[in-house]
Amino acid sequence: MIIKELNEELKKVLEHLNYEIENPTIIESNRKDLCDYQFDGIFSLAKKLHQSPIEIGEKMESTWKELYQEDYKLKKIEFVKPGFLNLTLTDAYINETLNYMNSHEKFGIDQEKRETYVIDYGGYNIAKPLHVGHLRSAIVGESIKRILTSMGHKVLGDVHLGDYGLQIGQVIYGLQEEGVGPKDITLEKLEEIYPRISGLCKEDEKIKEKCAEITKKMQEGDYDYNEYFKVIRKISGDDIKRICNYLDIHFDYWYGESDAYPFLKIVENDLESKKLLYQSEGAYVVDIQEETDKKEMPPMIFKKSNGAYLYASTDLATIYQRLLLCKPDHILYVADLRQASHYESFFRVAKKLGLKTSLEYHGFGTVNGVDGKPYKTRDGKAPKLDDLFKSVKESFIASNEKNNEMTGRDLDIIVNAIIKFADLQNNREKDYIFDEKKFSSVVGKTGPYILYTYVRINNIIKSQHFEAKSLNSVIYNQEDRDLRMKFLSLNEIMKSASQERMPSIIANYIYDISVLMNAFYEKNHINTLEDQEKKENWLTVLNLGCNLLKSLLELLAIKIPERM
User: Fold this and answer.
1) How far is CA 378 from the centre of its chain?
2) What ranges do the domains of the chain cover?
3) What class is the 408-555 domain?
């Protein structure tokens, strides 16, 4: 909002001076003690025009003052050597903008041109228990979905279950070996059989071949194997939904690889018609090497010599399915960075096929323990999510004796906040260390700290019987101004998080607001204040802060507990 208006003034100043520069823009100052915003394109102009940056800067300062001498937005316009134009806002303009935010839906942030997105995240494998390694795709994907939706887009989430791979053949093999029929399958039995048979397949090639044959026959429509498959998918799928509901993760589509199989023949026909498919060592492959590649890119295997399809094949077929289903402008994939080559491979084939949608891969790093290695339990295994939830809950309760009083929904909300904020405060491309004790504390950059800030400040507002008021033109002290200025960053924060598909931008903004709100309250003792006008102004500022926190936390799929 503010940057948009200041940019309009900047363009008119440049036009008046006949200065041309590509995409001139005002940015937030990184020296808040000097100014609020600045223009740092003077050096580029000086180089282009072969003039002194000091001469250009001084002309811009005087021209801006001349053109906008009646303007109430800026109380200070100053050129600072060697080449910066510094801008400081008036109190009146700050408060006018905050009043606008207070009175408009979604705080008046600029909405983007509406497009249709499908986000492929989750990616759980049927018949395998979910563990800590499955967290990031769900948490990051859900947040990206919510951010894009808040910016005005139509966004559909698809879990894209791995339900037709080798693990199904392994489980069916194990069930049949134990004489367990489809009607006798239980979740506990699935969780016991998969790791056992998976381990056997690594030791015995014959068993692996049998499991692969079962998988292939199931994919080809074998009735008996598909009876097993239907029950396995239902039982495992219901458990996955239970965990997703606990995490407040919601998918619009619960499709899997199996749902893409009807489209495989269409893909194969298209590949053949474009002469992209050829046979190599019995398998059918597609070349993806490009002239600009600095390393060799092996062909994408579309169909193995035994007729079985691979993940890349079904991922291509899924694009066809999605194009038919909802005609997306963009398909986003949120997955482990270690799978980057897989996505690059079928993305290139999709491009060769001329599929009309934008494909984006957004990778993430690993969740590590305090030892810096992938997060494990004491027995060396990645903890199942149910066990992780229980462990985090116990860590939070142990962090403060008062937490023993907390039960039920509020405690589950806090567990969610601990796990999600620990993840989302990090650039998703980076590995991060999950320290249960650290992230369960109400002190520091943690979910409980954010929630405690909201609950504490909101209780103060309620105790004062607050009624919404418009802010006057006064800002009373530095802590007051710092907080109000931070609110003004919202539009740029949302724009950046949306365009970069980066929830960490919002998570860090939430933390900054929380720190400033606490500093504001410690400095300004509202409860004992006798100046009613000042009290109403400060309560209005804090109320806007609470509303912002609650709204932004929703974008991270974090709710607010009733008490802490």
Assistant:
1) 30
2) 2-89, 117-161+252-367, 166-246, 408-555
3) mainly alpha
pTM above 0.90, yes or no: yes
What is the three-class DSSP state of 256?
strand
d(CA 276, CA 350): 11
* Alpha-carbon distances, residue 20 vs 16, 38, 40, 45 (angstroms): 10, 18, 14, 8
Q: What are phi and psi of 363, to 5 degrees?
A: -85, 160
3-state secondary structure of 302: strand
Closest CA to 507 of 519, 496, 518: 496
Superfamily of domain 117-161+252-367: HUPs (3.40.50.620)
- Structure tokens, 550: 């609650």
Contacts of 374 by beta carbon, 8 Å cutoff, 6+ apart: 133, 366, 367, 368, 382
DSSP structure class, residue 266: H
549 and 529 Cβ atoms separated by less than 8 Å: no
The predicted-structure confidence for 423-438, as pLDDT tens digits, reads as follows: 999 999 999 999 999 9
How far is the C-alpha of 445 from the C-alpha of 421, rounded, in Å?
A: 9
Residues 217-239 as b/e (b if ≥16 CB within 10 A, e otherwise) read bbbeeeeebbebbebbbebbbeb
pLDDT bracket for residue 1 (50, 70, 90): confident
Label residue 296 exposed, middle or buried (CB < 10 Å: 0-12, 13-18, 19+): exposed
- Number of alpha carbons in the 13 Å side-chain half-sphere of residue 250: 8
